[in-house]
Amino acid sequence: MAVAMEGERIVAVLPRADAFARFQDASHVELPRHVLLPGFINMHTHSAMSLLRGYADDLNLQAWLNDHIWPVEKAFVGPKFVHDGTRLAMAEMLRGGTTCFNDNYFFPEVTAAAAVAAGMRASIGLPVIDVPTAWADHVDDYINKGLKVSSGWQGETLLSTAFAPHAPYSVDDEAFGRIIALSARHDMRVHMHVLESEWEVGESLRQHGKSTLDRLNDLGLLNERLLAVHMTQLGASDIALLSDTNVNIIHCPESNLKLGDGFCPVARLLEQDINLALGTDGAASNNNLDLLAEARTAALLAKGVAADPCTLKAFEALEMLTINAATALGQAQEIGSIEAGKLADMCALDMDFLQSTPMYDVVSHLIYAASSQQVTHVWVGGRMLLEDSSFTGMDLDEIIDRAKRWAVRIAAGRGATGA
Amino acid sequence: MAVAMEGERIVAVLPRADAFARFQDASHVELPRHVLLPGFINMHTHSAMSLLRGYADDLNLQAWLNDHIWPVEKAFVGPKFVHDGTRLAMAEMLRGGTTCFNDNYFFPEVTAAAAVAAGMRASIGLPVIDVPTAWADHVDDYINKGLKVSSGWQGETLLSTAFAPHAPYSVDDEAFGRIIALSARHDMRVHMHVLESEWEVGESLRQHGKSTLDRLNDLGLLNERLLAVHMTQLGASDIALLSDTNVNIIHCPESNLKLGDGFCPVARLLEQDINLALGTDGAASNNNLDLLAEARTAALLAKGVAADPCTLKAFEALEMLTINAATALGQAQEIGSIEAGKLADMCALDMDFLQSTPMYDVVSHLIYAASSQQVTHVWVGGRMLLEDSSFTGMDLDEIIDRAKRWAVRIAAGRGATGA
Predict the structure, then answer these.
(1) Shortest Cα–Cα distance, B252 to chain A (Å)
(2) Domain map (residue ranges) of chain B
(3) Structural element, H or E, at residue A240
(4) Positive/negative CA dihedral, B33, B35, B39, B43
(5) Closest Cα to residue B114, out of B92, B93, B150, B83?
(6) Does domain A40-336 sit in CATH 3.40.50.1820?
(7) What kind and span of H or E run contains B347?
(8) B293 — contact with chain A (CB < 8 Å)?
(9) Cβ neighbours, 10 Å, residue A413
(10) pLDDT tens digits for A342-368?
(11) What is the ipTM of this complex?
């Protein structure tokens, strides 16, 4: 089979011979040993945090945040940090077949510009949190700066924007009210950490006298625009509510495991036909952005947690990487599958590797055996960004060099920041 | 730092300048961007089953075995299958930094010869099971053939042999009696699947009127020579008994997850100082032999299961890959660490990769971020088997070609075998 592209779109998926006949003047790439897939979509990233990869591990969430991550962020996070960290993250994601990422970090205008410069597709989160940071001082400041980012990039097909309130416990009802109204008016997604850990369950009862999901439902947040990330603390009534309201769940199994946060009940969510996609979370809590490996972890973990080897089959895991994520973003008409008319976001994996030999079932190999190092080609909007495992545009040496310089400064500052 | 080798052993670990002064005539390999590690030891493999990688997935254990794996094994397993499958497995393992594997499969004389021919270290399991197979007809036949393999390879430093009774439910007390006596007399390990699934718990009570571990203890099997694989069904009293008897536990997290078999309680085993090592299991239930990825899964899963992000820290996971495995094999004086006097089994990983950038802590990166594709050099007994990511002796094209031919035959026979 062949895929024909013109400009940023796929124009035909057709037999090879037909493609040569119909597009005689087109340049082409032959990939006889490969499988061609829709580009992977990483539905939860804090891209710039790649500069903090492995900075602090094997700690509980509160110690990790309070004693390590937040002090170092306070000391170093600014536009240059976000620029260099995002570029490092994008290079790693592209190298592994990811063509689009749904980000949440400060200085989103920097992330947006870096994505466009790299030619990568992104959903740019507009952060909102009850505490001041280097980027904004208070809720109105966050929202106004966010809206400015959003309106500034109108018409850029590589970008969309989403509100990114940090979490139910760190954003108050009034702020949620504004976000909900704006999200409905502009049809923007709301990307939020929800029920990441057990602590949050009690915290909602203490702060609001009701469960997290009851509160979000009362506020009007539970709908198809919500991208609820983590969701490790769900009872049966929660799952029914999520199903009724068409919430999208973004599963980050490796981050949840590493922080000992509990298990997202994937098998039960699948039974209710809830839309599930995947995120790596930031490299500070994963510690890589390997989405194919994340799909493998998801497929294995779902079986372990449900004690059911028949749940989250290989093809369902592949859907979580691609079309389910596009659906979550509200962009299933544009990305998430290889179809004529859609944007040409694709990756190709060389299957002639030891760990993919022999082959009985290509989808099984993709999820259970292959490595993201087998990705050799990546296209975003018809532009080839990775060719024969090399970047066509990004200066990898410079990206790595800058990351190393940051690490020297950050490691030297470890004492000074208290981290 | 530098490591000096002479013949099959490490003779010194010393500063680089001292190495150049003391070993002036020695050839040397410069690896400035690398980390040098003890070779990884895969403590549970069915190597030849690599030919069945991805043959059947997303099934429960009984359907997977009865309807797929056993019929295809019955139709195809013989010396040629074992030879070609073991070579495929060894290539994959060496490529990922594994220098030694603890195998359990039929025709162990073929596995042994293949390992020696490849220059790879192995503990060859001598299978015993209550049912006839292509290799042997009955228990005495298994044991006698096994002892012949064992005595035939006396003096080969690359090899050791271990009894490999299949599982408590498939070997009777009389056979265990013989195995225990022979294991004690010849100081041989006993490599066995134990408490892999919940079904086995009830089966022991039905068959023997006691729990699996009580029965094995009464038989005299619980001691430092036992390599108990899986162990997903352990209560508090079981853990105390295992600690008292110095049993080694071989944890196969990915296989356990994929088959939905339950969780080995790693955090609680660590608290009792029980020796824990890692295995990938066969590629038919994993579906790769990537031991570094297995260590990552183990480190993540232990935290998730215990709801404790501080358990199984990165360095402990690295110990499971190396010195703990050597201890389990009774070979900690010879392998498992880089020390003068030990056998030179080592691997080197290039850390100048996107997913290892930047670096604050090399051990964190090895376990949580790196990919086994970063392995560039591997030595076994002082012989370099992988150099700059290429095999020095194995004919990779031939190995892959043979595996593909098997897959054609096996796929064609799917109907005929009923599988």
Answers:
(1) 12
(2) 40-336
(3) helix A236-245
(4) negative
(5) B83
(6) no
(7) strand B346-350
(8) yes
(9) 15
(10) 999 999 999 999 999 999 999 999 999
(11) 0.96
